[in-house]
Design brief:
globular
Length: 102
């Protein structure tokens, strides 16, 4: 239910995606969350679920009250510090949030 709400609110699931740091020197995989949280950094909003999934979107509006009333603020906000994401993986996740990568 929460994941459908996040997807319908413009969030995209990013845990497990391959990203590069802003200098394109180091690749890493976005780690799964171990807690429910929400946070915002550099105009990117993130919601992490204890199930491990992390969802992000641009901060075009406030984080929905369903999230802020249910989760504590404070957690890592992926893709908010100039990282580059694997475009193919990101687009697959936009199309299917359950898609996993090895």
């Amino acid at each position: 239910m929460v994941e459908n709400f996040l997807k319908n609110s413009g969030f995209v699931r990013v845990d497990g995606l391959t990203v590069s740091d802003f200098l394109m020197k180091q690749n890493f995989i976005i780690e799964k969350s171990d807690k429910d949280f929400y946070d915002e950094n550099n105009s990117i909003q993130a919601v992490g679920l204890a199930s491990g999934r992390i969802w992000v979107r641009p901060a075009l509006e406030e984080i929905p009250t369903l999230v802020t009333d249910s989760f504590k603020r404070g957690g890592f906000v992926p893709l908010s510090n100039g990282e580059s994401v694997n475009t193919f993986q990101l687009l697959k996740r936009v199309a299917n949030s359950d898609c996993e990568f090895k």
